[in-house]
Amino acid sequence: MRLAGVILIVSSLALPAFVGLMSDLNVAQAQTTKAVKKAPLAKKAPVKKAPAANKSAVAKKPAGSKQAAPMAQPNRDVYPIMPLPERVGIQFELAWSGHYNGLVNGEFSDKSIAAVRAFQRDYKFKETGVLAPPERALVASLAKAKQEQVGWRIVDDRATGAQLGLPTKQAPNTSLASAGTRWSSAQGQVQIETFRIREPGATLATVFEQQKKEPANRKLEVNLLRDNFFILSGTQGLKKFYVRAEVRDLEIRGFTVLWDPATEVIMDPVVVVMSSAFAPFPGSGLAALMGPPPRRKVEYGTGIVVSAAGHILTDRQLTDDCNVTEVAGYGDAHRLAEDGATGLTLLRVFGASDLALLPLSQEGMAGAELTLVGIADPQAQGGGRAPSIAAARLNGDGLQPAPQTGFAGAAALDAQGRFVGMIALKTPVVASAGAATVPLPQATLVTTPAIRKLLDAQSVTPAVAPASATGVNAAKAAAVRIICVRR
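RESULT FIELD:
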């Protein structure tokens, strides 16, 4: 997505809803002009000359009516002083509501203001071009409802390193693809596939030409090539298709969407939003425009006791920027080491003689089915701190489904009840202002060889226990709640 902070949505995917963006790309000026005419701006009121001391124009009012305060171009005055994440959020949510199909970049041009007016007109508000608080709340709730309807989720694609938004209810099945990952519906009405190309002779232009011709049944409606990205869309057999790819450091990352016309009511706006949410390389996409998500002042996770000296492993992201890190029931924890590669933090508590230990498995993992043992967030258990379990399946190094909040740092047990890894839990950013969307967490498994490497580097001897000290009960006994307090 590294478009210098600008996210491009090509919205003429052979669909009426996508025609508007073509003006931004100088591809279909005539269609855009027609679309804009369909959403006329409020008629300009007649004006009378103001006194010399006040040059601003004042609209005439019928006789006997009360003179209103002047509103000279309120849209131009309000949006420049609005924070960028708020402007991006408005555009993003108006895209979900079906009123905006342009660049989601926070720049409020005539297209963005026309989208606001269109929303106001559809919901019987005064067409000011600026969302009042009740209107802002309504468009946010509409966007949230649409996201829940399709199961919208931001995911990290381990196969390509890209991040993308997915309609998980429309494409719930995951499998490996030739150059990335594939998500699809049961009968293949919707198919989403990522790809990553880094090979001698491959350039953005050569990949662009290849994608134009393969498969042979593609009929192009849009074919746009720029210095660092390209976009293709049209029909592929009986389906619609959309391709977006970007290049950085001789590597090309992209995604393709195929969907049946029967699903277009749902998928057309989803594909528009997917184009905005796509972040092929770190630090790009909507997340970059929205800025880092606010961290909770008090955050809860799980730690696993791994040595008799009070060493505890937990998730590094959980302990980021903590002013105080505490182990519930045992007091303050001293942070010994962090490992950015694995996402682990090693803590230690002193003077705790009753800690139960969980030994690391010395053998390989038995199957992909895992049992996670952690301590859920207090809000999820009425203020309690009891350990609980959740089932998950390993897919690459990721877990599906991701466990609930609080399981960052949870233990992963294989089918034989052995401690085979720890959960690193990440909450993705979903571009939606006003907390309109609650993002779903994503989880990865840090395996025991990586854990042993961290412990060896810190001269920590992991727990050694008999084979009987395995299973869910042993993991529950060794689980402790980690509390991070930030100012």
